Amino acid sequence: MEVFLGSGLDEFKKLLLSYHTIVFVGCSRHPGKPAHDIPEEMKKYGYNVVCVNPAARRRILGSLTFSDIKDVPRRYLEIVDVFRPSREVPAIVDRMLRFNILPKVFWMQEGIKNEYARKKLEPLGVKVVEDRCILKTYLALLSERDEVYANILRFARTYARAKGFALNPDPEKLDEIILALAYNQKRYGYRYCPCRTISGDFEEDKKKICPCVWHEEEIKRDGHCRCGLFWDPRAVRAPGGITEGPSSLAGRL
Q1: CB 3.0 to 4.6 Å from 70: which of 61, 99, 117, 210, for a disulfide?
Q2: Domain CATH for 243
Q3: 150 inside domain
Q4: Would you say residue 220 lies in a domain?
């Protein structure tokens, strides 16, 4: 029996599976610069990218773009990723605090460190990450999985955003579900939904891909679909995922 467990997830990888919107402070308009190319890559992986650039006169990367972080709607404040010199970080933090902007994660890109950010934000419950490239961290996660996993996760993020759903807020449960879907795609050739019983009718089973034909009614009724991939965002309180149901998806494959 196959067992799909969220293994190899350090705290940084868990953050990137817990949240799916990144606000890039200092996002550049110019291709070839890390502050442009890294947000662009994260967007390709299905993340909802929001840009902050005081000099921007139009959208960057086709994403929502603001001249000031205070103008970013609160619903987008999951990960704030900073592409500014370390010496400018205190001013960014002070402006956030002035306008009561508290993301889940305050992430400083590779080469950017600032103890002031940690001192001010961590007591308020904000996870602070220093001197770490968000793209390299995500690619390290994918290197432990495969391209099928990456494609399905990108699809799930894009679909959830289009439908107004949330993905499972527990990173290890989300990892388990995507691993199961990837396994089924490689085994059967399509994304057979991991929480349904195989009927034995190949053509009929193909109709029950994830997102499956039942999921919207289940989300409306229960707050999440049966396998727990898609959630009603109003039912998501914090990383923690489903508290009831099968402990493993393996027996349903």
Answers
A1: 99
A2: 3.90.460.10
A3: no
A4: yes
Q: Tell me the pLDDT tens digit for each residue of 113-156.
A: 999 999 999 999 999 999 999 999 999 999 999 999 999 999 99
Helix (H) or strand (E) holding 154: helix 147-163
In total, how many domains does the chain have?
Answer: 2
C-alpha closest to that of 224 among 158, 172, 163: 163
Q: Which residue range(s) make up the domain with 34?
A: 11-139
Q: Which of 232, 204, 227, 205 is nearest to 216 (CA)?
A: 232
Can you name the residues that pair with 48 across neighbouring β-strands?
21
Count of helix runs (H) and strand runs (E) in the chain:
9, 8
48, 72 Cβ separation under 8 angstroms: no
pLDDT digits (tens, 9 = 90+) for 65-85: 999 999 999 999 999 999 999
Q: Phi and psi (nearest 5°) for 192?
A: -65, 130
Q: Are residues 135 and 168 in the same domain?
A: no
Burial readout 161-173 (b: 16 or more C-beta within 10 A, e: otherwise) = beeebbbbbbbbb
Contact 3, 253 (CB under 8 A): no
